[in-house]
């Protein structure tokens, strides 16, 4: 279809960038840049890239943790919303979001739903297991059953968590650009067990999804 002009893909680390570059092959419309790890670095690096060049679409891609029974390791998640899940205040009654605190800044950015739908169908057609739902952005990787269930209770629409989506989305929003977050699930969210991370498989899925993106957008 190739409707888009220039697309900016932001990803955290070199292994993710290399997988995406293998997928998009030599599509000169698409730049893949490193965001670093965490929402602050991601916001700064995305804003820098958008200030330096003209783009029509911003996509945050990478690996992520998946909530049990919602996003299996090896599958892909396309975000409905990029949600900052730790921006707010704790209280004895529970977590209070920035919006609820009355600071007037949203902790959620909506993804471009039409583009998300187009990609969902194309990625499914390529034989990749994929779902659409919210993706949480956290500065700290979840590592206990307690935090996992608190997050699930607070954000029942969340399928996955990563560390950059909200930062990338805020920068894209500032520049008035549509934004997507697409994540390949490398590990289950829960008690920290690095041996359960399937990074190689997740990078292969990321590469396949990138190929579809270059073909479809
Ligand atoms: O060790 C490696 O070979 C390697 C290769 C590619 C990527 C990594 C990373 O550690 C990427 C960090 C990146 O991954 C996201 N992520 C993945 N799982 C989770 C999670 O359960 N909770 C939060 N974030 C997760 C995150 O966006 C990090 O920036 C290593």
Give structural attributes.
single chain, 217 residues, alpha/beta, Rossmann fold, 5-stranded mixed β-barrel, two-stranded antiparallel ribbon, binds ligand LNDFFVEH
Describe the structure.
The protein is built from 7 helices and 10 strands. The chain is an alpha/beta fold. The strands form 2 sheets. A 5-stranded mixed beta barrel has the order 3-9-8-4-10, surrounded by 4 helices. The chain has a two-stranded antiparallel sheet with strand order 5-6. The relative contact order is 0.26. It has helices at about 15-25, 40-50, 100, 115-125, 145-155, 165-175, 200-215, and strands spanning about 5-10, 30-35, 55-65, 75-85, 90, 95, 110, 130-135, 160, 180-190. The mean pLDDT is about 95. The radius of gyration is 16 Å and the shape is globular. The chain starts with 6 loop residues before the first strand and ends with a helix. Helix 4 (about 115-125) crosses helix 7 (about 200-215). The chain has one domain (about 5-215): 3-Layer(aba) Sandwich (Rossmann fold), CATH 3.40.50. The longest helix is centred in the C-terminal third of the chain and has 18 residues, at about 200-215. About 35% of the residues lie in helices and about 25% in strands. The chain binds ligand LNDFFVEH. The site of the ligand O=C(O)c1cccc(C(=O)CC[C@H]2O[C@@H](n3cnc4c(=O)[nH]cnc43)[C@H](O)[C@@H]2O)c1 has 20 residues, from helix 1, strand 3, strand 9 and strand 10.
